[in-house]
């Protein structure tokens, strides 16, 4: 039976591939992007996020079956904080009542294997505490220190959204309402954001040094999309609060075989 699914960042890359796979399976997809889509808006602007949510509510009649919150940027500035965490959480929360009214409601978020490297604990804590203005200020301060320090804006925003997912997943508002929420953590992926990096041997080597992918190398957007499609499907009936690293083995290299803490 056809379901209604919202995909953000759907104009290119992972979002475009996810929307295409969902439509090929017979689902109705509402594509959201900055300039091209069924609904357009800047997810780094709170008022724009609210407008996007209102338009989706109108289009769906207040009933939504799934959300793929894929929109994001890899900017070494506070823009990553605004879109990857603040805008994403705001949109998910705004659409949660629609999902609660849906059939087998599911959410899948694009996180990143970068959650495992280069984070700023202060920025992560500010985001999880809901201190939006302070988090943006912290992000700007990191960006002012240069690209290396600024990278923490991206990795920290992705770590924060991953932790937020695990925090809310078993709650009454999500699990209690039958809403499953998970994330995909890609490693190296061929998208518009990485095209320039992967265009040269030097760039490819730099990427491999930072994030090796021993299993099948660099991914295509379609590979990550397939994970999103499963996570928002009715077949995913028990998994929630998980971050699936579709990263070619980087997580296993980075964290090793024992990631379980003693209770």
UniProtKB/TrEMBL annotation:
Protein name: Short-chain dehydrogenase
InterPro entries named among the record's database cross-references: NAD(P)-bd_dom_sf, SDR_fam
Family label: Belongs to the short-chain dehydrogenases/reductases (SDR) family.
An example molecular function term from Gene Ontology annotations: oxidoreductase activity
Keyword Oxidoreductase: yes
Residue stretches in coiled coil: none
Disulfide bond found in the keyword field: no
Biological source species: Brachybacterium faecium (strain ATCC 43885 / DSM 4810 / JCM 11609 / LMG 19847 / NBRC 14762 / NCIMB 9860 / 6-10)
Keywords: Oxidoreductase
Pfam families to which the protein is assigned, alphabetical: adh_short_C2 (PF13561)
PANTHER family tied to this protein: DEHYDROGENASES, SHORT CHAIN (PTHR24321), ESTRADIOL 17-BETA-DEHYDROGENASE 8-RELATED (PTHR24321:SF8)
